[in-house]
Specification:
With about 120 residues, the chain is of the alpha+beta class. The chain has 2 domains: about 55 residues, no CATH class; about 70 residues, no CATH class. A 3-stranded antiparallel sheet has the order 1-2-3, with no helix packed on it. A hairpin with a 5-residue loop joins strand 2 and strand 3.
Length: about 120
């Protein structure tokens, strides 16, 4: 087996793989945009065995002074979200990510349209 970059010529075959095995799990990835690198592992007959890539994502990182009132902190959160959504869209990205352990912030984010997507796994490099 060999590994090589994904090309536009691979998209049709990748769509078939996605349709056969992953259509109910997630949308077909746009391997040609917003990826640092994409690659396909091919067999000796030049058929794709597996494909993947390192996707560039946007993630909000925020610090909040909890000495302020809940009302003021919520208003600040909404301003951060508004600015982040604008800049994310302007930069050509289609998703904005947030990681939080706090249920109160999760519910606030759900109210403005955020939703959970599976489990988040982190590898410190």
């Amino acid at each position: 087996m060999n590994i090589r970059a994904i090309s536009e010529d691979d998209i049709c075959e990748l769509r078939k793989i996605h349709q056969a095995f992953y259509k109910d799990e997630f949308e077909f990835p746009d391997f040609l945009n917003n990826y640092l690198c994409t690659f396909a592992v091919i067999d000796d007959c030049d058929k794709i065995v597996s494909a993947g890539g390192i996707r560039l994502i946007t993630e909000i990182v925020a610090l909040t002074d909890k000495n302020h009132s809940t009302r003021k902190r919520r208003a600040a959160l909404y301003q951060i979200l508004q600015a982040s959504q604008y800049l994310t869209q302007k930069a050509g990205f289609d998703r904005l990510h947030v990681v939080t352990e706090q249920e109160v912030w999760k519910s606030q984010l759900n109210e403005v349209g955020f939703h959970s997507r599976g489990n988040i796994l982190v590898l410190d490099i």
